[in-house]
Fold this sequence. Notes:
Blueprint: H1 8-18, E1 23-24, H2 36-48, H3 60-74, E2 79-84, H4 86-98, E3 104-109, H5 114-121, E4 125-130, H6 139-145, E5 150-156, H7 168-181, E6 184-188, E7 211-215, E8 228-233, H8 234-245, H9 253-262, H10 268-285, E9 299-300, H11 309-318, E10 321-322, E11 324-325, E12 336-339, H12 344-358
Amino acid sequence: MSHIDASGIRKVFDLAAKMKDPIDLSIGQPDFDVPEPVKEAAIAAIRSGPNGYTVTQGIPELRDKIGADVAARFGHADRQVIITSGTSGGLVLAILALVNPGEEVIVFDPYFVMYKHLVTLAGGVTVFVDTYPDFRIDVEKVKAAITPRTKLIIVNSPANPTGAVASAAELRSLAELARQRDIVLMSDEVYRAFCHDGEFHTPAAWNHDVLVVDGFSKAYSMTGWRLGFMHGPARVIQEIAKLQQFTFVCAPHPVQRAGVVAWDVDVSGEAAAYRRRRDRMIEGLGDCYKIAGAAGAFYLFPEAPWGTGTEFVAEAIRQGLLIIPGSVFSRRDTHFRISYAAADRTIERGIDLLRRLAHRTT
């Protein structure tokens, strides 16, 4: 644990709790409420009795519903589903189950903050592949990063923190490379409902052995409910289930019941709202900030117009704007993350202050 720092995002959360009426564009959490039918399903489950343990893999009703969708999309006879305690719980299980001490995990920089710390927890070594300035996947860079110790590649599209969405060609090349080199490819797809400019693509379409990590947190605003899932080759899912049995035990039972209902809820309205907010942020900031990616999720990752990312964010926070320095997600300290999962009034206040900050020099 001495090799793992406290989350820089949590520090901003703590700061936000102490500020009066901050302009909060920091939190990677949907601002829409949980859909009413999902709430009612959870309440009904709590009242009617299914509050005990479930089987480790998750209740059959939810696994079957997700499994039917997975089978229709991929047709992989060997692919199984497991329900996890959030997408983060799935990441914990997958990395601990797959990575031996000393083995290497390739991660694209910028990256979701949890990846490198979980690799450290497993005793592995994180190998970063740079994607600046456009946050695209260059498979030639991945090839150059592979060594005999490479065990796992993690890809996240749509991506946190950049909002970048990988193309079908990029993901196909990555999937084929992983298969050729006998390396596990894990795809973090928790933002797949939010592709603003085109279709969502998954590397599992081109490689039957891809392990997919997903969840209900972002699409259904269920971040605090801790409901995720994974699907992948049976031999891998069975090992992950074994580890879940001795760690999380199972995902919360009433929440799994609610997940059965959530799976059929249409979230296209929320996705359209995020797209409109993305467009407004680009319209308001595009002439004074360099912004790449931004095709999905609900994040922008602009380059700081002066100073380091940390210096710029410190000044923004002094003026009441909560954003996250890019160094939390990267080896570079040149950018910062904005979450536009916020009310329109908050977004407008943020645009106004960011425009003023852009024209400062120190």
